[in-house]
Amino acid sequence: MNKTIYILSFTALLVLGFLTIKFYTDNMYGEPNLTNGKEKYTNNCAVCHGERGHGDGVVAATLKVSPDNIYQEITNPFGFSYELINSVLDGDNGQEGLMPAFKGVLSKKDVNDIFGHIKSVN
Q1: How many structural domains is the chain composed of?
Q2: What are the transmembrane regions (predicted)?
Q3: What residues contact 82, with CB distance under 8 A and at least 6 apart?
Q4: Helix H or strand E encompassing 46
Q5: What is the pLDDT of residues 8-42, one digit of tens each?
Q6: How many CA atoms lie within 13 A of 29 on its CB side?
Q7: What is the pTM of this model?
Q8: Domain that holds residue 71
């Protein structure tokens, strides 16, 4: 019985720790500015990722690797926003993708605003 209680307690602490870290990192840039997010998304992302961030923009079909579905990525309960923000800023070249880096164009707050905009239109 005691072993079961220890295992359950340890598991609960792990889950609580994960949720705490996720909440903190997903909210570290504050409340998204949806107006800024819409403007930045329209100017920098929509052509590849589409109106709602589903990876179906007007040039998506011409690309070697389909753009990611940003909405799925940002609503993944096991994902962290800061990782996605860094992918946008550094360029996401995984899976042979060719997404350029936006570090010189967007700030971390801008990308957070973009994610807020995408959530608001889905």
Answers
A1: 1
A2: 6-24
A3: 25, 26, 28
A4: helix 46-49
A5: 999 999 999 999 999 999 999 999 999 999 999 99
A6: 19
A7: 0.89
A8: 2-121
